[in-house]
Amino acid sequence: MNRLIAWLPDRIDRRVRIAAWVSFVLNVVIIGTGGAVRLTGSGLGCSDWPVCVPGSLVPTPEMGIHGVIEFGNRTISGPVLLAAIAVVLFVWRIRRERRDLFVPAVLVLVLVIVQALVGAFVVWQELAATLVGFHYTVSVVIVCITAAFLARMVEPAGARELAVPRAFAVLTRITGVVLAVTVVVGVMTTASGPHSGDANVVRTGVDAELLAHVHAWPGYVLAALLATLVGWAALKRLRPLRWLLALLAVTLVQVAVGVYQARSGLPPLAVGVHMILAALAAATMTVVVLRIKRPVTTDAAPDAAAAAASAR
């Protein structure tokens, strides 16, 4: 055990960076494969959990391609869990000085385990729409946390200070709330739409067309807010500019995909792209929020600590 602990990194090295990126990518991939399960009607391709079908861990020929698709999505859960464990282990020795990395690493591991349990209930409850929506939402949260880990990993630990005007920071956080609302309403819209994962699944009963219009409203507000933030950041050369540009680009593509899918009868591929882009937009928004602060310089750190103590 001592040899293992001694082998673990005592700083942010290549192993930490690779494990963190693998964790982020795999959690995005599993959203895509989970979407493929629903969009191909393969939600009950494996009718049991943790086995695929009673008496068999893997899909049987009788399950056809749907069994292969659902089992493939389940299989990715293993690497997702292993990557989460690896990240926790690789920051173990620096857990005290880098709590900003250790805490999110542990949170991701816990949520990945929770996701496995939620997935079991999704199968046992035969793809209940609310459970499926919750399953996706948790995946988006995990992607955001892994993105936050990546953003903090490249910066030093310690105190942070506001790097933008306070009004800009407030508007950025408001934009984050609008993005969250957009994603949640999007999940509700999907839960009432036709792509249930299986032809026999009962949907929520809410008018999907009405929800699609409601979903569009915060999406347009989000695009307007992002355009405002990009213009402001470009004018003042603010720290989050590059990430805001990336987020605006993703959002505009999202709007285009959303309009296309609504006018084209919700083609499965477009819906799948929309799901993945929503997760990537949420992850990018997370990084933008983190970028409104910067590490306190060494010279300024004592003053910042004194100010914090005085405020307390």
Structure in words:
With 312 residues, the chain is mostly helical. Helices cover 72% and strands 2% of the residues. The protein has 10 helices and 2 strands. The protein has helices at 2-7, 14-39, 64-90, 99-124, 129-153, 166-192, 208-236, 241-263, 268-291, 301-311; strands at residues 160-162, 293-295. It has a two-stranded antiparallel sheet with strand order 1-2. The longest helix is centred in the C-terminal third of the chain and has 29 residues, at 208-236. The two termini are 42 Å apart. Mean pLDDT is 87; it is low at 304-312. Pathway: Porphyrin-containing compound metabolism. It is a multi-pass membrane protein. InterPro entries: COX15/CtaA_fam (IPR003780), COX15/CtaA_HemeA_synthase (IPR050450). The chain crosses the membrane at residues 21-41, 76-94, 101-124, 130-151, 163-188, 217-235, 242-262, 268-290.
